[in-house]
Design brief:
heterodimer, A: mainly alpha, 1% strand, B: MetI-like fold
Chain lengths: 285, 292
């Protein structure tokens, strides 16, 4: 059970074996995706036909590598654009919310706190359709009333950004609030006593303290937006973000160019994940 | 004096209002009003172009058409099953990380549990497709060791969906379990042994009761994510996956029947909220404790 209690060797090995099996289960799909990125075959499946880098750099049909696949590259660009705006918006609003919930008292605070947690328990597909229905309602209302066609309220990138923002803000709010809760208010008071203005105290004391959480929340927001599928699926227009483009290819059956792309995505998101763990770790210990 | 205090408090009020503005806009425009509108749309019937009337027809249709009703129940049952399976598989692993292994290995194992989940769900599901398909890795492995005579198709059935769902949900079970088991004092387990307990009775009477908050929050999050999943059932289950989110997608995007799609969406939301609420009540937790 625990190291201080002696256990028969057989059980110990059995337990360790189970843990090993579990990690094989965890890593198998990722390893398989990466390995088949180098398979010299038109389909990401057995048998192994020898190694190639064509799925990265190839430029002759049907061996089109990821760096020459303009459609996929375009969708990476679309995703990065969406993720950038979602990150900026959700970290900004999340910071405001953190100050509001941690520092202020106002009527209805508890109710608003519960509502702001609710996007986490609303399935992504439903969040998507509710925003689709509501924005359509507004667009139709405006068109009937004054005849303007508000194009951005129809399915498209604007709605994708708004839809992802709606639930990612909950996460940035939680991350930033958690850090703000640890902040010692007397530091800010000391700055005010020493003659700093409120704004100067905020920018020189509080914001630098929050920086790890702001960066961490930003990385999480970017990745969650980049990888989001459910909400995006319901709101997407003609410009497909990466997850939607990859989903369409997967359904049709694709060449291992998807494996090459997946491998690159794993490297980037794995790197960002480690970075966010590193940034948020307290320097004390 | 009183005048300046009034000005000051007025300024404070204005500042608070400005700070609250993004929150209010976010919650009202993107969460509250859209869901009210979803409910209203689900309660209307299209009479002719641009003309609607209040009606319960969309809900009546759901309860009278066996396909919709069965898909709904099937999705709920399979989600509960996937949640239980994730708990059973994840609990020993979490216990191992929290209690058995010490030092650097502990952090390394925990990090290894987290990393796969920074990778997009699409990539993970793609990996399972390569493993399970007829020309895939496992099928070839089985032929190579002589268990199977020909290619084995393991994709497009309920077991494949289950494997993918459990895989995708594992992180959300392991993280709360590890953190709650970490807080269990070793001396309690030692005392249990001193008093004549064995591994089974100690797990039942000490470890599991202590871990209950973590079990509850893990199960709630996993259940919710599974219920709302679209990608995994769709890609691993193929045409017969019959997941309720697929019905919503079909009504909205393929059939362009927003009224009935909204009703379906609302029913899924009700199902998810009811089960989350029951889970919170049974484990005596609150929503803020669970996700906060």
């Amino acid at each position: 059970m625990i190291p201080s209690i002696p256990q028969p060797k057989f059980y110990k090995h059995l337990y360790a074996g189970y843990i090993a099996l579990f990690f094989i289960y965890l890593s198998a799909p990722l390893i398989v995706v990466s390995v088949f990125a180098f398979n010299d075959s038109l389909f990401p499946s057995m048998p192994w036909e020898g190694g190639t880098l064509a799925w990265f750099f190839g430029d002759s049909d049907p061996y089109i590598g990821i760096f020459n696949d303009s459609k996929l590259l375009e969708s990476v660009g679309v995703s990065a654009f969406v993720a950038f705006w979602v990150t900026v918006l959700s970290v900004t609003v999340g910071t405001c919310n953190a100050f509001l919930f941690e520092r202020s008292q106002f009527p209805g605070k508890n109710f608003l706190y519960i509502v702001s947690l609710s996007p986490l328990v609303i399935p992504g597909v439903i969040l998507g359709i509710s925003i689709l229905v509501f924005s359509n309602f507004i667009a139709n209302g405006v068109e009937e009333a004054i005849g303007w066609d508000l194009e951005f309220l129809r399915p498209g990138l604007f709605l994708v950004i708004i839809g992802q923002f709606a639930f990612i803000t909950t996460i940035t709010t939680l991350v930033i609030s958690a850090r703000l809760r640890k902040f010692d208010v007397s530091l800010e008071e000391a700055a005010l006593n020493l003659g700093a203005t409120r704004r100067a105290a905020l920018w020189t004391i509080t914001i630098p303290f929050l920086k790890p959480a702001l960066i961490g929340a930003g990385i999480v927001a970017f990745l969650m937006s980049f990888e989001n599928f459910n909400t995006t699926l319901m709101l997407v227009g003609s410009d497909a973000p990466l997850t939607i483009a990859m989903f369409d290819r997967l359904k049709q059956g694709s060449t291992p160019v998807l494996n090459a792309l997946s491998l690159l995505l794993m490297l980037v998101s794995g790197g960002l994940a480690l970075l966010s763990v590193f940034v948020q770790r307290d320097k004390k210990s | 004096m009183s005048n300046s205090a009034a000005v000051k408090s007025g300024g404070f009020r204005l500042g608070l209002l400005l700070l609250a503005l993004p929150l209010l806009l976010w919650l009202f425009l993107l969460v509250i009003l859209p869901h009210i509108d979803l409910l209203l749309v689900s309660l209307r019937e299209r009479i002719s172009y641009g003309k609607y009337e209040f009606s319960l027809i969309n809900y009546v249709e759901f309860f009278t058409e066996p396909l919709y009703w069965n898909t709904y129940v099937r999705t709920a049952v399979m989600s509960i099953f996937a949640t239980v399976l994730t708990l059973i598989i994840g609990f020993p692993v979490s216990y191992y990380i929290a209690k058995v292994i010490r030092g650097k290995g502990k952090n390394a194992l925990f990090l290894m549990c987290l990393i796969p989940f920074w990778v997009s769900e699409l990539v993970r599901t793609f990996g399972w497709m390569i493993l399970l398909r007829e020309s895939g890795v496992i099928s070839n492995l089985l032929q190579w060791i002589g268990v199977a005579d020909g290619p084995v198709e393991m994709l497009y059935n309920d077991a494949a969906i289950m494997v993918g769902l459990v895989y995708t949900s594992m992180l959300f079970m392991v993280v709360p379990l590890v953190s709650v088991l970490d807080s269990l004092d070793d001396s309690l387990i030692e005392a249990g042994y001193d008093l004549g307990g064995n591994a089974f009775t100690i797990t039942r009477d000490i470890v599991v009761p202590h871990a209950m908050p973590g079990i509850a929050s893990g199960c709630i999050v996993v259940f919710m994510l599974t219920l709302g999943n679209y990608l995994t059932p769709n890609l691993l289950g193929g045409k017969d996956s019959l997941w309720f989110t697929e019905q919503i997608y079909t009504q909205f995007i393929t059939r362009f029947n927003w009224e009935s799609g909204s009703a379906f969406g609302f029913l899924l939301l009700v199902l998810s909220s009811v089960i989350v609420w029951v889970g919170l009540k049974l484990s005596k937790q609150t929503l803020s404790q669970t996700v906060g």
